[in-house]
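Inputs:
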Amino acid sequence: MACQFCGVQPASVKDISKGDDPIAKIDPKDLMPLPAPYDGPEYTPDIAELKDETKKTYGKSSTLDGVLAAGIPQPETKEEEAELVDKFLDGLHKLFTKEDNWTFLQPLMLSMEHCARCQTCVENCPVYEASGFNEVYRPTYRAEILRRLYHQHVKPGNKWFKTFQNNGIELNYTLISRLYELSYRCTLCRRCAQSCPVGVDNGLITREIRKLFSQQLGWAPKELHEKGTVQQLLVGSSTGMNSVVVKDNIEFIDEDMTERLGWEVKTPWDVKGADVLLIENAGEFLAWPENHGCTAALLDKAGISWTMSSEIAGYDGVNYGLFYDDVQLARVASRHFAIAKELGVKKIVMGECGHEHKALATIGDRVGVDLPPRESILTLVRDIVKSGALKLDPSKNDFAVTLHDPCNTVRNLGIVEPQREVLRMIAPKFREMTPHGIHNYCCGGGSGFAIMSGFNFNDWRNLVSGRKKFAQILNAFADEDLNTDETKKYVCAPCSNCKGAIRDMLDFYGAKEKSGIHYGGLVELVVNAMVDAAEPVLDWDMM
Amino acid sequence: MPDFEYNGKTVSVDEDGFIEDPDVWNEELAAALAKGEGVDALTDEHWNIVNYLRNYYQQFGIAPMVRKLCKETKTPLKRVYELFPSGPAKGACKVAGLPKPTGCV
């Protein structure tokens, strides 16, 4: 039914295959309002319009919502389009075949067959809510497209009856190119799945759609594939650092930390038989060096025998395959496990990176056997802090601190309390966000969005997918003065991906300069509270 | 690939405006790229950073960590942002002709 105020007809599921114009539009006036002092229209500008040249090159794939995350160059002929549709259909069959999808077929089938269309999930989706309830972002909109295709083209039985029963949908190139883009409008936070009374997982469905496109058509955002997993497996890290560069960088970090703390910090490399293999997200070594420096300092102070690995992928815990492709996921996870075995360590400790946790700690179990034990840095730091090995003075962290819960570590793995136990011991002005823990909201950068910034996708991320989180951060600091940067506020975000998204969000809204809102990890706060640190490791000018 | 035009010449850039081939970089191109990043004229302070980035890139094949850039060029981060309003990665690296940083950075 058309809106009684503006006359705009919200997109129906069938619209995905129709027309040459975008089926959705993002109007800043529709977006969820932000709290003061960010409630003025100047903080919610228009999303940059796609250039005509971009629209021409990416054709149909640019006609979803006026936004482009990855895009597919428009095929030149109808024949090419038809060929791609056939390939898609082939992939659709594979998605529902045990031999081709033994990893996720069972949960996918449950999600296909058991949705009661009750829409309980929709009010739990941060993208849908922040967008002002834009129909194409409704979690069941995307899922329903796959479900109809499944009933029409895959499920055995009378085709006419099944199509009639499920309302049908036209499968054409317009549908597949828009569906590809639409699979990159969900952060895979899985808040929808958590709220579903029967356990239907729209996050998983989205991820399986991405997988179909990647494994069958070779369609994947270059940040995740070409510059992501491919580069990681070839060079050693998705950042492009080979082992020479990473060692040079870590040496710099160790020296810098040693200088600032007043005791020696040294990262051991390739030590056979060490107890712990530390695998962190390599983004830390370039963008947030204190995070590695502080982790190293804490492991040393606790007297833990540890090492890093300079093997390909051994020093980069990212596994973007988790977001889009099972084959790449398995390749990277297998490398991580093989390196741990080769070194003969007792366990892998995963650094402050949410999706690394998810890929190594649980999904990894689907792609290997006899795997080494894995532990989160969050529980290890909790144990170190509680052991009394460190002399701590919480008053050194005399500023407001709130905690962001990375979806993969918290909702998806249930690591909720350890980081809070630490904060209660070291941050006197710690306050929770509302809601928090397993009910947290995504940073807006989940599922790879934090590193995807082509075209106008950055605007979309900051204005739409990160909007709930920005509102939560502002609300958590509502008792502080948000009109000055004199009083410091710290968002503790123990995840590299989340930190990247929060950094971009604070930049976008100018919240560092206007309100003194900074961000960083957990280990930095612990080391900042250490009595015997010569200098504070939190350097506000560098953050 | 989109094109970037300057002084009657054309180079290929990615959708974020980073040049595709680092070898086509020259000082004239840097000055033109800088204009797009809110830098009207490149001063010695700008060149200090741009040259450091290029040398590091030629040696290691990627961009340096920001802290290292600050320490070795003796430029506080705040000053880097004053010089390149779009920041060290999106601003300074683009002007220096480095590819767009990849991974979780």
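The two ends of chain B are 24 Å apart (CA to CA). Flag for discussion at group meeting.
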